[in-house]
Amino acid sequence: MSHDPTVPRALPEDPRQDQLKRRRHSSIKRYVVALVLLALLVLAGMVAAIALGSTDQPLSQVIEALGNRQAVDAGGGTQADRIIWRVRLPRAFLSVFVGLNLAVAGVLLQGVMRNPLASPGIIGVMAGAALFATLAMLVLPAGGLPGAPRELHVPVMAFLGAMLAAAVVFALSWQPGSGTSPTRMILAGVAVTAMVGAVQNFLSAYFADRIGGVLIWLAGSLSTRGWSELGMIWPFSLAGLALAMSLARPLNLMQMGEDSARSLGVHVQRTRLLAVFAAALLTASAVCVAGIVGFVGLVVPHIVRTALCTNHRWLIPASALAGAALVGWADVAARQLGEMPVGVLTAAIGGPYFVFLLYKTKLI
Amino acid sequence: MQNAIEQPAALQTEALAVNYGKHPVLHGIDLTVGPGSITGLIGPNGSGKSTLLRAMAGLIRPRGGHTSVQGQRIDQLSHRLLAQTLAFMPQHPIAPPGVTVRELVGYGRAPFNAWYKPVPIGDRTLIESLIQRCDLQPLADRLVHTLSGGERQRAWIAMALAQQPKVLMLDEPVSALDIGHQLEVMDLLTDINREQQTTLIIVLHDLNLAARYCDQTVALLDGDVVAAGPTAQVLNAETIRRCFKVEAQFHKPIDGCSLCSFSRLTTGVSDRH
Question: What are the DSSP E strand ranges found in chain B?
Answer without folding.
Answer: 11-20, 23-33, 38-42, 64-69, 72-73, 86-89, 167-171, 199-203, 216-221, 224-230, 246-250, 260-264
